[in-house]
Specification:
The chain is of the alpha+beta class. Helix content is about 20%, strand content about 50%. Strands 1, 2, 3, 4, 5, 6, 7 and 8 form an eight-stranded antiparallel β-sheet that branches. β7 and β8 form a beta hairpin.
């Protein structure tokens, strides 16, 4: 799991895919934090991505860096504890001008039942389950 987190942080931007009805939706994200042994991401409850995840929590993430790419598939689970929200914001202080742990909008999700595949054109894929 640490390898997955390191990849996402080094890539800086990853693309999160959700589903809205029968239409896939993809958008850039940048938060990835280890908190209590799980990888967390953050968004705002007012955003469509939040609404989509509450209806269907299955997701995929894709990121590319240095000739390798990662795909992560699994479920995102909301953690409504203040501590989880604050953990993400502590790691990304630039978000604190838009979000706070107590604003009623900030949301933290952790990745559950995930399979990550790190691939390149030069070596066999590396599969990480967590």
């Amino acid at each position: 799991m640490e390898r997955v987190l390191k990849f996402l942080k080094e890539a800086d931007t990853y693309y999160l895919a959700t589903v809205e009805g029968d239409q896939p939706r993809v958008r850039p994200f940048g938060t990835a934090v280890m908190f209590e042994g799980k990888i967390y991401i953050q968004t705002g409850k007012s955003k469509n991505v939040s609404k989509q995840l509450h209806i269907n929590p299955k997701f995929e993430i894709c990121a590319f860096k240095g000739g390798e790419w990662i795909r992560i598939a699994g479920t995102l689970v909301e953690d409504d504890r203040r501590e989880a929200r604050q953990a993400v914001l502590d790691d990304y202080p630039q978000l604190q001008s838009m979000y706070s742990a107590d604003d009623g909008n900030t949301e933290a999700f952790y990745i559950k039942d995930a399979v990550a595949t790190i691939s390149s054109f030069t070596k066999a894929p590396e599969i990480i389950k967590f």
